[in-house]
C-alpha cells in the first residue's frame, strides 16, 4: 500500500501536491508543477522562478570541494531558468550549515555560488543562514523572459525534431567512476561535480522561435522524454547513431549496451532537451551546440530507440528520482 | 578563535557572506543581505523576494501539527514580504521529507502552506520534493510593490515615532509554556504555532507614505531595534508603559521583570516594527493595529527603555539567532 513517502513515485506525489495547491493563482501563466519553473506575468513580461533543495548525503559526493558544492547548488537552479529560455536575475541561497563546518569552507561554498551566478551573468541577491545537522542548501533562481520567447514543456507535436545540447551520460560516467573508486582525473569528474547551466544556449533557443518544447535533462534523458511525452501526448523515436554519447561513457562502460544505458538513463547532465519544428530547423542549423537525436511520433508509437543495427528498442521510464524507491538507478 | 559556524555571530557571518557575494548586480535595488527581502527592479515596479529554511529540530515543536508546520513555513516568508510593503505573488516550497512520513501528513503540510498563502491572497506556485533525514522546508515568497511604496530598513531619523503591530511576547510566552510542559489551551499556543503574516498591515503602511523604515520582529523586538539602529545610525527610547505586552506574557511570567524581558527579547512574533515621521503620523492615527512604543533619538543615546517608574534601562542586543551560540535565549 502506498502510505509513506518512500512508497510513492516522485511524479505521482508531485501530482498529489499540485491538486492540493490548486491552480487558482491568476498571475500564474503555467500551472504549478507543470514545468521547470513557475511562470508569473509581471510588467508585460514573464518572471520565471525555481527552487531546488540539495543535501550532503544525496547530492554532494565526499570528493566534492566546498566550492563545487556552492557551484552545484547554484547550477541546478540556473539550469531550470535556462530550460525556460530565461535571462537570470539573481539567486537566493538558504544554507543549513553543520555547527562544526569551518568558516573557510562556508566561504568557499559562497564563492562557488557566486562564481556560478557570475557565469550566468547575475549574482547572489539574498538568502538565509541556519544550522543543520546535515549540510543542506536550497537555492532559488529568478529569471526574466519576454512573452514571445518563453520556452515551456508544452507544444511538441509529431514530426518535430528532438535535440539535445552537449553530450549524454558524462555525469553518469563520473558517478560510476566515483562509486567504483576508480582513478580518474579532475576533468573526468567535471560533468558530475561542476555542471554547466545552459543559459546562453537557452537564450539562443528562446530567440530562435524554432523551439516547440524544452526542459532540462537533470533526471536523465529517458525520464525527460517521458515527461515531454506525457505533457504533449506524443511518442519519440531516437536513433542510437545520432546520440552524442559523452567520451567518458565510452571510456568507462564495459559494453556498448552499458554505454547506451548510461547515456539514456543516468542523471546529472543538466543539458537541454528541446523539440524543434522541422520547417524552422534551418534557423538553428548553424548552432553547433545542438544535436538532433530523433523525431516526435504519435503517442501510440511509444518511446523507442532505433539501434545501430536497425532494431527497435523501447526506452524505459527510469532515471534519477529524488523520492520513492521505484526505478532509481 | 572564531573558526567554525558555531563560534560566529549570525549577523557577522551574514556580513562576511555579503562581502563574498558582492553588490554588483545592476538590477538589485537594495544591497544583498541588507533587508528582509531582496529587491529587484522589474517592469517599472519592484519585485521583492525572500527565502527561509526551517527544520524539525529547531523550528517545529513536537506538538505542532503537520498543517501548522506548513502554515509556519509559509508565514515566515510572507512576513518578510509584509515588511517590505509587498503584495504577495506566490510561494515556492522545497521540502525534504523523512522517508517514513505518511502521505497524509505530507498532504497536511501542503494544506497548511496553501491556507497561509490563501490568507495572503496568493498561492503555492511551485517547489521541489526531496527526501531528507530531518523534515526540512525552505519556502521562497515573492511579492510586488510600486517604487513609491517600498518599505525598507533604511530611512529612520531622530524624532520619528517607533511603532509595532499586534502584541509583544505572545510567541515567547507560548514557547515557555511548551518548554515547561504547562497545561495551556490551543489559543495560548497560537502565536508560536500559527503566526499571522502582517500582509494587510504592511500594505496599508506602504500606502500611507508615513513610514520611514520597517522590518519584522521575527528574532525579537530588541534584535530588530539593533538592526534598525545599525542601518540608520540612530538610537531608540522606548517607554515600558506603551509596550503592547501580550496577555499570555502576563499570565505566564513570574515577575514584571520577566514579563518585560519576554516582550523585548523573545522571538517568533512576526509583527512589524516601523518608524513613522511625526508630522505624517496623523495619516496613521486611525489605524488601530499600530501601537506607538517610543521614539528615535541620536545614536549616542543608545537603545533604552524608560520603565514605569521613570528609570532608564539599556535594552541589550539579544534575541533569537539561527546560528552561533552567543546571546541565544
Automatic annotation (TrEMBL), chains A, B:
One example of a Gene Ontology biological process annotation: thiamine diphosphate biosynthetic process
Pathway: Cofactor biosynthesis; thiamine diphosphate biosynthesis; thiamine diphosphate from thiamine phosphate: step 1/1
Note: Reaction mechanism of ThiL seems to utilize a direct, inline transfer of the gamma-phosphate of ATP to TMP rather than a phosphorylated enzyme intermediate.
Originating species: Methanohalophilus halophilus
Alphabetical UniProt keywords: ATP-binding, Kinase, Magnesium, Metal-binding, Nucleotide-binding, Thiamine biosynthesis, Transferase
Record-linked InterPro entries: PurM-like_C_dom, PurM-like_C_sf, PurM-like_N, PurM-like_N_sf, ThiL-like
UniProt superkingdom: Archaea
Classification of source organism: Archaea, Methanobacteriati, Methanobacteriota, Stenosarchaea group, Methanomicrobia
Binding site for Mg(2+) 5: 219
CDD domains in alphabetical order: ThiL
GO molecular function: ATP binding; magnesium ion binding; thiamine-phosphate kinase activity
UniProt-listed Enzyme Commission number(s): 2.7.4.16
Transmembrane segments annotated in the record for this chain: none
Family the UniProt entry places it in: Belongs to the thiamine-monophosphate kinase family.
Residues annotated as binding Mg(2+) 1: 51-52, 128
Binding-site list for Mg(2+) 4: 36, 50, 80
Residues annotated as binding ATP: 127-128, 153, 218
Role description: Catalyzes the ATP-dependent phosphorylation of thiamine-monophosphate (TMP) to form thiamine-pyrophosphate (TPP), the active form of vitamin B1.
Pfam family, one: AIRS
The protein's name in its UniProt record: Thiamine-monophosphate kinase
Binding site residues for Mg(2+) 3: 36, 80, 216
Reaction(s) the record says it catalyses: thiamine phosphate + ATP = thiamine diphosphate + ADP
PANTHER family: THIAMINE-MONOPHOSPHATE KINASE
Domain PurM-like N-terminal per the UniProt entry, residue ranges: 35-145
Boundaries of every PurM-like C-terminal domain copy: 157-298
NCBIfam families linked to this entry: thiL
Amino acid at each position: 500500500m502506498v502510505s509513506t513517502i518512500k512508497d510513492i513515485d516522485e511524479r505521482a506525489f508531485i501530482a498529489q501536491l499540485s491538486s492540493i495547491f490548486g491552480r487558482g493563482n491568476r498571475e500564474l501563466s503555467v500551472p504549478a508543477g507543470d514545468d521547470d519553473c513557475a511562470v508569473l506575468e509581471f510588467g508585460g513580461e514573464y518572471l520565471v522562478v525555481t527552487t531546488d533543495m540539495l543535501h550532503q548525503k544525496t547530492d554532494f559526493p565526499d570528493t566534492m570541494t566546498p566550492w563545487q558544492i556552492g557551484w552545484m547548488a547554484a547550477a541546478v537552479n540556473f539550469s531550470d531558468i535556462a530550460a525556460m529560455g530565461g535571462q537570470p536575475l539573481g539567486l537566493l541561497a538558504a544554507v543549513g550549515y553543520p555547527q562544526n563546518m569551518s568558516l573557510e569552507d562556508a566561504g568557499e561554498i559562497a564563492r562557488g555560488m557566486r562564481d556560478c551566478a557570475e557565469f550566468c551573468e547575475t549574482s547572489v541577491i539574498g538568502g538565509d543562514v541556519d544550522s543543520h545537522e546535515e549540510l543542506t542548501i536550497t537555492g532559488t533562481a529568478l529569471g526574466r523572459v519576454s512573452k514571445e520567447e518563453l520556452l515551456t514543456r508544452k507544444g511538441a507535436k509529431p514530426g518535430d525534431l528532438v535535440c539535445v545540447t552537449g553530450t549524454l551520460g558524462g555525469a553518469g560516467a563520473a558517478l560510476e567512476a566515483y562509486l567504483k573508486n576508480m582513478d580518474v582525473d579532475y576533468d573526468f569528474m567535471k560533468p558530475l561535480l561542476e555542471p554547466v547551466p545552459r543559459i546562453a544556449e537557452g537564450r539562443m533557443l528562446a530567440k530562435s522561435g524554432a523551439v516547440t518544447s524544452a526542459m532540462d535533462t537533470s533526471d536523465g534523458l529517458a525520464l525527460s522524454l517521458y515527461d515531454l511525452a506525457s505533457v504533449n501526448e506524443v511518442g519519440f523515436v531516437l536513433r542510437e547513431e545520432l546520440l552524442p554519447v559523452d567520451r567518458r561513457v565510452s571510456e568507462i562502460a564495459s559494453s556498448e549496451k552499458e554505454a547506451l544505458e548510461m547515456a539514456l538513463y543516468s542523471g546529472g547532465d543538466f543539458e537541454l532537451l528541446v523539440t524543434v519544428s522541422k520547417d524552422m530547423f534551418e534557423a538553428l542549423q548553424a548552432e553547433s551546440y545542438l544535436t538532433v537525436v530523433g523525431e516526435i511520433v504519435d503517442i501510440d508509437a511509444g518511446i523507442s530507440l532505433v539501434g545501430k543495427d536497425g532494431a527497435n528498442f523501447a526506452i524505459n521510464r527510469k532515471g534519477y528520482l529524488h523520492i520513492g524507491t521505484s526505478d532509481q538507478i
